[in-house]
Amino acid sequence: MATEAPDGPNAQSIDEPVHIESANHLERVVDEHDVVLVDFYADWCGPCQMLEPVLEGLAGETNAVIAKVDVDQHQPLAGEYGVRGVPTLVLFAGGEQVEQHTGVLPADRLRDLIEGYTD
């Protein structure tokens, strides 16, 4: 019996970024949500740190799930998505990758990008 309960041992609020723990975890998040914006980042990256509060805000105000992948901890996963610089933002809609951008984008541009795929 499968239920979609928002509260379970592995449930996370979509109002805050979800920290990805493995390739399988990322795949589950993408499969379970309509729109997912994945931030491939590094703790030592200045632009990534500037983007952090923007993504936290978007997590709370959009219907998208914001997922974060630490490229230092998950190098094979970053390589799988062709991440060559951080931050790299990958947008999934309906389980498929639809956009990829390297570098910091302003909050309004990110919001428009997400809203273009949410109805």
UniProtKB/TrEMBL annotation:
Residues 1-119 form the Thioredoxin domain. Signal peptide: none annotated. Disulfide bonds join 45-48. The keyword Cell wall biogenesis/degradation does not apply. It comes from the Archaea. GO terms for molecular function: protein-disulfide reductase activity. The record marks 46-47 as: Contributes to redox potential value. The record marks 39 as: Deprotonates C-terminal active site Cys. Transmembrane segments: none annotated. InterPro entries: Thioredoxin, Thioredoxin-like_sf, Thioredoxin_CS, Thioredoxin_domain. The active site is at 45 (nucleophile), 48 (nucleophile). Keywords: Disulfide bond, Electron transport, Redox-active center, Transport. This is Thioredoxin.
